[in-house]
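Service request form, structural biology core

Requester: graduate student, group of Dr. S.
Request type: structure prediction, single chain
Budget code: on file
Notes: please return the result as structure tokens.

Sequence provided:
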Amino acid sequence: MSDNQLPIVGVACRHLRSKGMYVTGTMNPRVDDGAMGDGYCWCNKTQNMLGPDDQFVNRDGCDASRPCYEQVL
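Core staff response, request fulfilled:
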């Protein structure tokens, strides 16, 4: 994390995926694994970089503010 970035504190959508999740093996949406991957994210529902709401997916934006968000159970 660079000095000008704020830490991510929210829980990501359960459909958010990133390369870092597979590199670290944690698959924990409460943890920002982006530093371990290349930062590329995708939605597991749409299988691409756009979510069901046609907005880009990313670790700090796939949260409860989006209509397609689903909480991790």
